[in-house]
Amino acid sequence: MLLDAYRHGIFPWPTAEGSWAEHIWWWSPDPRAIIEPDGFHISRSLGRTLRSQRFATSRDTAFSEVVAACADREGEPTWITPAITAAYCELHRAGHAHSVEVWDARGDLVGGVYGVAVGAAFCGESMFHRATDASKVALATLVEHLRRRGFAFLDAQMQTPHLVSLGAVEWPRARYLAVLRAAVREDVRW
Hints:
Helix content: 25-40%
Structural class: alpha+beta
């Protein structure tokens, strides 16, 4: 059901009402925040961080750890419940959900991002950082991987000033759904 929802532009999203332990809420916002692989903006400071090789990155080597870190909001409620975690880990085992991990010089996981691939669309779910710029490094690594593999776009769901600074644009829902319909039919491999 979760994979089918992504194929139709629907995703789970937190709400202030109700309990995540009891309810799943589904969303298809209008407009939609999108990062096109060729439109990702790397600021001077992020470029310096990437060139410094201060961090190492990997893909799909610590998926469950990235999800757990995204769920750990230091006393804040999280929508990433044990049931949601189990569902995404099952999608990962089936080859549909993926992660990018960021490691510091000691080998500690300090950042990451995860999401779901459906055809040539990648639907980002959550990211985290425990070191300055680690989530930006994860996102830059993800976008470069998507570009090289031929993905059409990264669905970032909801626009934020942070995403705008990285090159995210808003698409009206009608455009998003039309592009998504074409993208899910493409045979693009992670």
